[in-house]
Amino acid sequence: MRTSVGRGRIYRRCSCRDPQHHQLGAHCPHLTTDSQHGTWNFAVDVPTPGRHRTTVRRGGFRSQDAAEQALGRFLEGEAGGYNADPSQTVAAYLNAWLAAKTLVLKPTTMARYRDYVRNGLIPAFGTLKLDQLAHRHISAFVTCQLAAGRGRTTLHRCLATLSSALGDAVRQHRLPHNPSSPPVLRRPTAPERRIWTAEEAARFLTYCHQADPEMADLFEFLIGTGMRKGVADLLSRRAVDLRPQNPVWSRQRHNVCHWLRQTDARGAPYYRTLKPLLDTHAEQLAKAIDCA
């Protein structure tokens, strides 16, 4: 039994075989006498860069309506530029999502995403179909990971990666809602960080000048400017304007999976924001050093 829904076709087939062990498929005689025999399928031709026609076939649907809905969503995805294949697994979607994010994210962020996806999310959910992923699967994953002793902070970041990927699927109309919402695990409370006082920084620098004067100069520069250590690692005379009102640096270095990568620095904008505060601390530090 075949029907047409504009573009694409819906049909029923089964896995019965003839005496020669050839699969009968859509030609099984039981399909015409038993309405519950077999499963519903859809097939649709999709364009390709070459001249050869490519036909996408998906099956296993319990009813004709389910097959028609899946075909409709597949065609909507093709028109919208995203993959709405009902057979797409979570692993396939996450790998495609990572490939797309590589074009817009920094190497350090990509390294963390790739680690969470390949070492945590795909082993847990990879074989599930994306449309079947539910909140209960994520909740069971969290319970299992906590019982195995995994850190809450690492687990929260892993779930945040999953939420970001599924959020993109919702924005692209690939999914009707985000299965990871509401969050299963709350963000762990970070311990409060205590900032050194000017006197403590002065004692540290006094010791450094005695133990390693060259490193002491670097530490004093970092404390006085608030610069990131990855930015300071690539400083050169041409990259810095030493006038107090206009320091500029352009490159920084990151450790990405034990490989050093250079990227554009984000130092100058936040330096201009923090400059009044840094000037105040610099004055306090100078006085503390004089008294030390």
Structure description:
The structure is a single chain. By secondary structure, the protein is of the alpha+beta class. The protein contains ten helices and six strands; from the N terminus they run ββαββααααααααββα. Helix content is 48%, strand content 12%. The strands form two sheets. The chain has a four-stranded antiparallel sheet with strand order 1-2-3-4, covered by helices on one side. Helix 3 runs antiparallel to helix 4, helix 4 (107-125) crosses helix 6 and helix 7 runs antiparallel to helix 8. The protein starts with a strand and ends with a helix. Mean pLDDT is 79; it is low at 248-260 and 267-274.
What are the defining features of this structure?
292 residues; alpha+beta; four-stranded antiparallel beta sheet; 48% helix
Which secondary structure elements does this structure contain, and how are they paired or packed?
Layout: E1 2-4, E2 9-13, H1 30-33, E3 39-46, E4 54-61, H2 64-80, H3 90-101, H4 107-125, H5 135-147, H6 152-171, H7 198-211, H8 213-225, H9 229-232, E5 251-256, E6 259-264, H10 267-291
Antiparallel strand pairs: 1-2, 2-3, 3-4, 5-6
Structure summarized in a few sentences:
With 292 residues, this protein is α+β, with helices and mostly antiparallel strands.
Helix and strand element order: EEHEEHHHHHHHHEEH
Helix content: 40-55%
What is the CA-based Rg, rounded? 30 Å
Low-confidence stretches: 248-260, 267-274
Structural class: alpha+beta
How many DSSP helices?
10
The total beta strand count reads: 6
Order of neighbouring strands in the sheet with most strands: 1-2-3-4
Q: What shape does the CA trace take?
A: elongated
The amount of beta strand, in percent, is 5-15%
